[in-house]
Amino acid sequence: MMKKPASERALNPFAASDGRRRVSFDDADLEEETLLHAPKALSPSTSLYKPSNPTSRRQLPFIALGLVIGAVLGLAVGYVQFTRMDPGLSFAMKDGVQLTRQNPGDKLARVSTDPFVLRVMTFNLRYGTAMDGLNSWPHRRAHVAELINRYHPVLLGTQEGMDEQLRQLHEMLVPQYERFGDPREDGGEHTQIFYDAHVVERVQGGTFWLSETPQVPKSRGWDASHVRVATWGRFRLRTTQQEFFYVNTHLDNTGKLAQLNGAKVIWTEMKKLVGNTLTPLFLTGDFNTLRPSDVYEYLTTNPEGPFFHDAWRVAEHPIGSISNSYHEWIGPAYDKTKHGDWLDAAMDQPDIPGANHIDFILSRPQLPVTTTEVITESRNGRYPSDHYPIVAEFLFPSATELPPPST
């Protein structure tokens, strides 16, 4: 059962999702909030107010009177200025600061126009019905949920999730997460997207099939060993109303033609929505192929492709010393790119971090990537999945740099 939308859940108006205080004023005045774009807490030592100079007691009554008069005048001027604004406006600029409202009738709220960090994660969960002994889903689901809650991505692309597995995971995550995405076939795996509904609003979304007939459910393409799908969403930032797209997928594990054509289907379908605009587009998934491949070349450098940028390769601070992203439950001891029988060659560069990833986080146009991390943690020698989750932090454009919202 899906959770209620975030808008239907009661919220403390003076507490942000990460516990930080929000400051608001009377209804007649501008509501000023510290609106958050990523779950990063302020340092405990951070001071929001500078201490004033010592003042004698005789001066205090006059200072207090001056402050009261100034506050009254400020309220009056603010009321006149902001009530004169068109109530249908989504944006306004005041002294170089952007003001926005999330919903019609809301007061305009002050937001930062500086770039902010958007955290994206890809995570192949390993399907929950697999008979993996001590690595089975019941033994690792708590670790999976705790890891996601701790890293708290705004966008999370999952692969291989089953209905009950995804339901259990959703119940264990913090309340602001919502999810969507259809199974590839009845009772089959999903490529569901989880998102923080406090930060972004889902405007559109759906699932298409990686086949010659993408809109036909359960259709299998080319030489694929399984039915394959991609889940996509169009999202709107709640603070600035700017939009972006996100796609999550899982390419076939054996069919080379299905892998390449599946990547082409993804770009063909997304071009219908994104067009030739500069609207940001993110793509995550288990691609079941290495970087030196036709699939990777099509997605990143082919003139007919989308020219995605690989977060691992462009990150200022890539974190993770292992070469592979799939590890077959044995972690760093895994020394081959063998995944079943589809990759039968030993790694050519086993000591180069990231050289043998098959899980990627891609974006277009190129956005600054502050960090990318391959999360290799384990508990008592057990890993949360047979793939390492990967997380990237994008320095998302400021509101003034993004394309305007669609009409």
Summarize the entry for a quick read.
It comes from Pythium oligandrum. The protein is of the alpha+beta class and 407 residues long. It is built from six helices and 17 strands.
Description of the structure:
It holds the Pfam family Exo_endo_phos. It is a single chain. The protein is of the alpha+beta class. The chain has 2 domains: 84 residues, no CATH class; 281 residues, Endonuclease/exonuclease/phosphatase (Deoxyribonuclease I, Chain A, 4-Layer Sandwich), CATH 3.60.10. It is built from 6 helices and 17 strands. The chain has a 7-stranded mixed β-sheet with strand order 7-8-6-5-17-16-14. Strands 9-10-11-12-15-13 form a 6-stranded mixed β-sheet. It has a 4-stranded mixed β-sheet with strand order 1-4-3-2, with no helix packed on it. A hairpin with a 2-residue loop joins β2 and β3.
Q: What is the CATH architecture descriptor of the largest domain? A: 4-Layer Sandwich
- Strand tally, please? 17
Output the CATH topology of the largest domain: Deoxyribonuclease I, Chain A
Would you identify the regions where 5 or more consecutive residues have pLDDT less than 50? 1-56, 77-102, 337-342
Q: So how many helices? A: 6
Order of helices and strands: EHEEEEHEHEEEEEHEHEHEEEE
Side-by-side strand order of the widest sheet? 7-8-6-5-17-16-14
Radius of gyration: 24 Å
Strand residues, percent: 15-25%
Main beta-sheet annotation: 7 strands, mixed
Span of the ends, CA to CA = 32 Å
Helix proportion: 10-25%
Question: By CATH's scheme, which homologous superfamily of the largest domain applies?
Answer: Endonuclease/exonuclease/phosphatase
Nearest-integer average pLDDT: 78
Give the count of structural domains.
2
Characterize the overall form: globular
